[in-house]
Amino acid sequence: MGTLPVVARVAPHFGEEPCISGKRGSGTVFFSGCTMHCVYCQNYEISVKNHGVTLTPQELAEAYKMLEKSGVHNINLVTADHFVEAVAESLHIYHPHLPVIYNCSGYTSPKTLSILDGLVDVYLPDFKYSNNKLAEKLSHAPHYVETALAAIGEMLLQAGHLRYDKEGMIQKGVIVRHLILPAHTKQSIAALDMLQRTFGNEILVSLMCQYVPWGEVRHDPKLGRKLTRREYDKVKSALSSLHIDGFTQDLSAANATYIPNWDFELF
Ligand code: SF4
After folding, report:
1. Residue 239 C-alpha to ligand 1 middle, in angstroms?
2. What is the pLDDT of residues 54-96, one digit of tens each?
3. How far is the CA of 34 from the centre of ligand 1 (A)?
4. Are 60 and 29 in contact, with CB atoms under 8 Å apart?
5. What would the mean pLDDT of 213-230 be, rounded to a whole number?
6. What is the pLDDT of residue 123?
7. Which of 47, 104, 213, 252, by CA, is between 20 and 30 Å from 83?
């Protein structure tokens, strides 16, 4: 990717956690491209094919203003790591009067994140794997575990303790997402255990079961199916016994409705 942001969609989004989407939606900006390359990526059209429209930092700042005017609860920057300098510039041009959420894979460095210090209120990273070999195999992401844990540590330093407004909408803090993959419950439980041991109750964890097989992975013996109820219950029960606060999805979330329509709608 070049240095100017390529954007696939700018629009209110209602599929995030309740304290992010609320009643009026989250003001999302979906960036094209990604620092990871997951074989099961459901956003393949934008993460790998890089479809989208190139915007300048000034145009990005205008997009925040439009979203803000629509009444959304926050501005939610999705998968922007590879455009971080232009994104920081856009936030210097116009900083919304709403919480700024940085929604990312977690596969980034504290040095990259330092560019956003003071500009982001809420971090929403993934923590996908407890096992580096699996991360290399499924996401082409070497040294994943130590990289993501260091990144989440930096996010916590910047965003601090969890804070909400009177409506229960998040204003500050870190929510870590973990997507459970079919036939990989042990690695999910180990990932939750790592998060608990490293960050205790300083973070919230959002446990996701919305995986649906996509593209080539539909023919994979392990990843070619949805999660079973039994698998999901096993990981949910581990989350509960680790006393981690956060969110769980309903298993009915495992359908394609969570995948935005990549129509390059720029609001
Ligand atoms: S981190 Fe998310 S957006 Fe990036 S390739 Fe993996 S699943 Fe797709």
Report:
1. 23
2. 999 999 999 999 999 999 999 999 999 999 999 999 999 999 9
3. 6
4. yes
5. 92
6. 98
7. 213
Q: 40: which 2 tokens? A: 């099961």
pLDDT tops 80 at residue 178: yes
Q: How far is the CA of 37 from the centre of ligand 1 (A)?
A: 6
Ligand 1 atom nearest residue 35's Cα: 4
Close Cβ partners of 205 (under 8 Å, ≥ 6 residues apart): 175, 176, 177, 178, 192, 195, 239, 244, 245, 246, 247
d(CA 157, CA 189): 25
Report if residue 49 sits inside a domain.
Answer: yes
pLDDT reported for residue 58:
98
Which of 30, 35, 47, 124 gets mutated to test ligand 1 (max ligand atoms within 8 A of its CB)? 47
Tell me whether residue 250 is in a domain.
Answer: yes
Rounded Cα distance between 239 and 245, Å, is 8
**For residue 119, what is the domain's CATH number?**
3.20.20.70
Q: Give residues with Cβ within 8 angstroms of 27, minimum separation 6.
A: 12, 13, 64, 67, 68, 70, 72, 73, 74, 75, 76, 98
Work out which ligand 1 atom sits closest to the CA atom of 34. 4
Q: How many domains does the chain have?
A: 1
Q: Is residue 263 part of a domain?
A: no
Q: Residue holding tokens 């029960």?
A: 237
Going from the Cα of 153 to the center of ligand 1, the distance in angstroms, rounded, reads 21
User: Is the CB–ligand 1 distance for residue 103 below 6 Å?
Assistant: no
Whole domain around residue 65: which residue ranges? 6-258
The Cα 32–Cα 49 span in angstroms is: 8
In a domain, 87, yes or no: yes
